[in-house]
Design brief:
The complex is a heterodimer of chains A (about 180) and B (about 260). Chain A is mostly helical and about 180 residues long. Helix content of chain A is about 80%, strand content about 0%. Chain A has one domain (about 1-35, about 40-175): Arp2/3 complex 21 kDa subunit ARPC3, CATH 1.10.1760. In chain B, helix 1 packs antiparallel against helix 5 (about 100-130), helix 3 packs across helix 5 and helix 4 (about 75-85) runs antiparallel to helix 5 (about 100-130). Classes of the chains: A mainly alpha (about 180), B mainly alpha (about 260).
């Protein structure tokens, strides 16, 4: 009995590591493949594909671990700590929004909708950090550019996630943890 | 495909490199507080000098740090433009409602340098400390089971990422030899072709992880049990001195 429980815990842990690592790898791939957006300095945020997908397989606590793992390691591997502060609050806010939307609406809200919500909240979080750190209202104007951008990246992430999801359910590891009943 | 540059760690033997990761992490928190308290040029200058001393101690050329700071260059540009267009009284150029002011530009420069300081200070940690060391530092700073578990997962993930990347590279080359070319595709097609890389990568990673899980199970790994570490951290006098300097700088900034 105990052994079985341990196996389950291990499986969950592996799923967290898998989704987290893939998110980080996607982030790295994004920096290598030139996908240019019309606005300079904008990032697509491919890593969020795995975060959106993760909502459908992990519970709230494990998902939080994925978020922390992803932002923490991306910072260690790709950049500096200041990126952590920006990325973490953004990711945390978008996680809370998406989790809430998923919990309350579940099947009624499509993957695309959740992803757009996440994309916008992600940018809102970054703005909040900038406001606290730099203490200027200029940031609020910068937000006007970032909000529609969040929606656009949200759509892009949603499209890819929707294409990836059915393929993931072909793996046993993913299938046993799928949250929604019908695939 | 560009050469992959993973991790920002710069391997050198300097005073700052040899510090305890815990000291470096705490130092970074002190520095963040310091930057939040900066409100005038005198404080900014003091904080700048203070951080430059530590940059010097790390022996890494300052151009490295500046290159890192240029990551946010569009935001800096926006700030400079925003402040010179909306704030200030000494106008350089005035065309209708639009005006370009000198003190606005200075104000913009103040905020930009504050942001640059922030990035550079973060880079000081990641340039001088390996990801593994930072993980060990975090683990030692907060001694709780959930952090312990998180640090373990982080370590596994750090090991896993290079292997996934290797695999992605291989798959990318394979798809390329079959005629995949990202630069020629329309944006929509790019997403679809991205799948031809993501799906095989996930498949291989799942297989690898299942194998690792079985290996861990065989060796009696139990989730949530206490684990010991081979690498022990040592907090020495120099770590305390550095932290003391950081604390004093913070106090001076608040008093100035």
């Amino acid at each position: 009995m105990n052994q079985k429980r341990n196996r389950e815990n291990l499986e969950k842990m592996m799923l967290v590591i898998l989704i987290g690592s893939l998110a980080i790898v996607l982030g790295i791939i994004e920096s290598m493949i030139p996908i240019r957006l019309p606005i300079p300095g904008a990032k697509l945020g491919l890593a969020n594909i795995m975060i959106v997908i993760g909502l459908y397989y992990l519970d709230a606590k494990d998902m939080l671990t994925v978020i922390i793992l992803k932002t923490f390691l991306t910072t260690l591997l790709m950049g500096t700590f200041s990126m952590f502060a920006y990325g973490f609050v953004g990711a945390l806010l978008s996680y809370m929004g998406m989790m809430l939307a998923f919990k309350l609406l579940g099947n009624k809200m499509s993957l695309l909708g959740i992803s757009i919500l996440g994309g916008i909240l992600h940018n809102v979080g970054q703005i909040i950090v900038a406001m606290i750190l730099i203490k200027t209202k200029a940031i609020a104007y910068y937000m006007m550019f970032l909000l529609p951008l969040g929606a656009i990246t949200g759509i892009a992430v949603g499209i890819v996630a929707k294409l990836v999801m059915p393929r993931l359910n072909e793996f046993d590891l993913f299938k046993t943890h799928y949250k929604l009943k019908e695939v | 495909m560009r050469k992959l540059w993973l991790g920002r760690y710069v391997s050198l033997s300097s005073v700052y490199h040899s510090l305890d990761p815990r000291a470096k992490l705490l130092m970074m928190i002190l520095n963040i507080m310091m930057i939040i308290f900066i409100t005038n040029w005198v404080q900014l200058l003091f904080a700048g000098c203070f951080i430059v001393i530590f940059l010097y101690l790390s022996k890494i050329p300052i151009s490295f740090y500046l290159r890192q700071a240029m990551f946010l260059k569009y935001m800096y540009l926006f700030f400079l433009l925003f402040f010179s267009l909306t704030e200030g009284e000494f106008f350089l150029v005035k065309i209708g409602v639009l005006h370009l002011s000198l003190d606005g530009l200075l104000l913009g420069m103040f905020y930009v340098s504050k942001m640059i300081l922030f990035v550079v200070m973060g880079a000081l940690l990641t340039f001088t400390t390996t990801p593994g060391e930072i993980m060990a530092g975090v683990r030692a700073l907060f001694k709780s089971p959930s952090i312990e578990r998180f640090a373990f997962m982080g370590n596994l993930s750090i090991r896993l990422i290079p292997t996934i990347l290797e695999e992605v590279k291989l798959i990318y080359s394979a798809q390329k030899s079959r005629g995949l070319d990202f630069s020629e595709l329309a944006l929509r097609d790019k997403f679809e072709k991205l799948l031809s890389i993501i799906i095989p990568a996930i498949s291989n990673t799942v297989k690898r992880l299942m194998m690792m899980m079985e290996a861990m199970e065989c060796r009696g790994y139990i989730v949530g049990h206490e684990r010991t570490s081979i690498y022990q951290l040592h907090f020495r006098v120099r770590d305390a001195v550095v932290l003391l300097c950081g604390g004093m700088a913070l106090v001076i900034i608040i008093l100035l």
